[in-house]
Amino acid sequence: MDAQQFLAEFGQIANAPGGVTRLRELVLQLAIVGRLAAQAKTDTPVDETLAAAAVERAAYESKFGLRATRHHPPLDTAPFTIPDHWRWVRLEQLALYLQRGKGPKYAERGAVSVVSQKCVRWSGFDITLSRFIDDDSIDSYGEERILREGDLLWNSTGTGTAGRVAIVRGVTENQAVADSHVTVVRLANCLPRYIWCVIASPWVQARIHPMHPDSLVSGTTQQVELATSTARALAVPCPTVEEQERIVVKVDELMALCDQLEKQQQDRRELQNALRQANLQALAGAQGPYELQTSWKRLQASFGFLFSEPADVDDVIAELKNLAVRGVLVKASRSAADLARVRTDCSALRSEYIANGLMRRQKLVGMAENDMTYPEHWVVAAFDEVAVVIGGVTKGRDLRGKQVVVCPYLAVANVQRGYFKLEGLKSIEIAEDELPKYLVHAGDLLITEGGDWDKVGRTAIWQGGVENCLHQNHVFKARVPSEKLLRAWVELVFNSGIGRDYFAGASKQTTNLASINMTQLRSFPLPIPPVEEQLRILDALAALSDLCEKWRRQLKHKRDLASLFAMASIASLTGIGIEQNEDTSVKAPQTDDEVA
User: Fold this and answer.
1) Count of H-run helices and E-run strands, the chain
2) Selecting from 3.80.30.20, 3.40.50.1950, 3.30.1330.60, 3.90.220.20, what CATH number does the domain 44-238 have?
3) Ranges for all domains in the chain classified under CATH 3.90.220.20
4) pTM for the model
5) What is the assigned CATH class of domain 339-529?
6) Residue 510's pLDDT is what?
7) Angle formed by the axes of helices 241-284 and 19-32, to 10°?
8) Bridge-partner residues for 224, per DSSP?
9) How far is CA 553 from the centre of its chain?
10) Which residues pair with 97 in a beta bridge?
11) Given pLDDT bands bounded at 50, 70 and 90, which one contains residue 589?
């Protein structure tokens, strides 16, 4: 590897999305192509090492009465170029023993632990996650199945778990065995850490996917399987044993540097987040359009320092919504909100619904306590005064003897903040005469009753497009009939920080769930500006949000380009092109806890 080239490429790799992961991949790729260490004249030739391994393997198989290994044919082509003094071999040529573990008979306690895929982590071997086998079944295990210090464990089943590899460390004699989902690789005279580097390299890990053109696994993307014969036949670039030692030392040294770099990047990210929040607080503290314009220009000027992830822009959009609901985005109107007209229009619609049997007569709900401050010419009213709120249809009702129809319905999962997810829309039976009550019309506000605490009060305006669509009882429907109160304004208020804080505070919460009832929704203290000011605020917010989305696209484009450049740099430095896309992504070694 050209040191100058590496230094030139280092920055763009390190700062690309997942840059440190890319550097770890680069280290492993350089290790297995012979770029991290040099040959020494005193090194034992690889052919001698292979011959010695064959002798050791034969003796091992004889000692434990194992069937002699039937080797795969020699490799006819080299997967990529390696140093002349290296050899391409199959993994079985380096192993004394290579076999799947055995299906255990579990027990609550026992003398021997059984190691599962949970114990095989990218961060290392963790026997604390093991279980026990029944003491009565220990005699059914051959001595060769007892795990030894230095054994390689290679997860062999399951999407997301297959491919992980770890070295057994810290086990005592006769302490543990592997279950049938883990392949045990016991090496003859090669270093386990070097073979770990080969298996953990992106060249191998990219192939732990059934869609890869040179896949190592069978099955589907939902459930993959690494066969023992495939593990045996794995092509391994084999250097001298002494060079393996030098490579491993260099790998560990570079991985430690990657860990340091990752920590520095995390610290920098935390500092960036704090700086961005400080700027957003200045934005949030604006008392009028002029102060807002000043803070906004400051935010724009510092964009490159404050934002690095597309998701960072969400913070700005959320704060703009809060400013909009406080009346800071535009100059105040000279006229006042026409609350009397809004109330009259709503009362007329409610009377119509009561007369047509679409709802029962209800006593108006009073407004909840409100400590928010809004412009003086705005009014604040209980939502019940300005909208007709109707509950949804309940599943599982007794409909015997009734004429029924089957209709699609909106559940909580379908109603997002400001939009709908209509994939997999479910259907429900309903009495035909109840259809008018539960039908959703274009312009209706749909508001979620509950779910996770942050989902309560999620609101979107139905635009139509699904015939005879209903709403479930966990989704409230609200109709705002007055031209003096825009539905888009109500949606904005409910989805803003002000709305979210109200719903979170009013909801009934358990450990993981929260919900509001209809009374709490109807008593929501809704701020209402004059209608022409509502329009100007929504237009101003849309313009600023469009600019934010432009920022988001720029950040995404920058990250995508950086990722492509990083992959191209790695291919250039290693001489190996690793195909990566959404279907065949590399599962690079991590230091985090993995989900088993």
Assistant:
1) 17, 26
2) 3.90.220.20
3) 44-238, 339-529
4) 0.69
5) alpha beta
6) 64
7) 170
8) 219
9) 20
10) 186
11) low
